[in-house]
Design goal:
CATH topology of the largest domain: BirA Bifunctional Protein, domain 2
Number of helices: 5
């Protein structure tokens, strides 16, 4: 079984680490190859949003994965990655964090990390998945539009950590949680729910196209879908959409 980080390719600048990883995966690159960039000029997050990726201030990392799972189970990979990131912050850097479904890590109520999994499907099977992780490390301030909603490791801990240092610790945890996700997805769900204050009892509004679902979070389904209980007691499993979570 190939180790994650078996090969680490470092670049001074890339448009997007996920884009290069996807190109390499399509050309047959093995599972475990990691792409690191000092900056991204077109970094992106979920739903195509821009991810500010200034030079040297963050960890901009993508991993090529070839998980033997059905495409509908891809969410479990995102959840496993979130656990790995959250534990790295808490255990190695003493920063208290929270996980906001499906792919955000928050510290002090502000976003410190985003996770993006993009997969390729062939004949109802997953050919590969690209796991992208962006972590704010050295930013002491942010653009005006992000100043109230983003934070960084140096802001939260007054500790300066290089992207390579953070990546070395993170990849070890990511390896363990990714392998467990393939074998025991229920363990991923349980641990994710332990780490997220949003998992149960949080007011939620889900917008998808012209439809809107409102209710209260009731944990995660085994697939990783967010369970929402509506006012009439119906429980819905949410897998996509614009998610607005609000604590009581």
């Amino acid at each position: 079984m190939t180790r994650l980080g078996c090969a680490i390719l470092r670049f001074e600048s890339l448009p997007s680490t996920n884009d290069l990883a996807r190109q390499m995966a399509e050309q047959g690159a093995a599972e475990g190859v990691v792409i690191l960039a000092r900056e991204q000029t077109r970094g992106r997050g979920r739903q195509g949003r821009a991810w500010v990726s200034t030079a040297g201030d963050g960890l901009y990392l993508s991993v090529i994965l070839r998980p033997p799972v059905e495409p509908v189970k891809a969410m479990i990979i995102t959840l496993a990655a979130a656990i790995a990131v959250a534990e790295t912050f808490a255990v190695d850097y003493a920063v208290a964090v929270d996980i906001k479904w499906p792919n955000d890590i928050h510290a002090g109520g502000r976003k410190i990390c985003g996770i993006l999994v993009e997969s390729a499907i062939e004949k109802s099977k997953m050919d590969y998945a690209i796991l992208g992780i962006g972590v704010n490390l050295g930013q002491s301030d942010f653009p005006a539009e992000l100043s109230g909603i983003a934070t960084s490791l140096i802001i939260e801990s007054q500790r300066r950590v290089t992207p390579d240092e953070f990546a070395a610790v993170l990849l070890k945890r990511l390896e363990a949680w990714y392998r467990l996700a393939l074998q025991q997805p229920a363990a991923i769900i349980a641990r994710w729910q332990e780490l997220s204050s949003y998992a149960n009892g949080c007011a939620v509004r889900v917008e998808s196209g012209d439809s809107v679902i409102e209710g209260v979070t009731r944990g995660l389904a085994l697939s990783g879908a967010l369970i929402v209980e509506t006012a009439d007691g119906e429980r819905r499993e949410i897998v996509a959409g614009e998610i607005h979570l609000r604590k009581a």
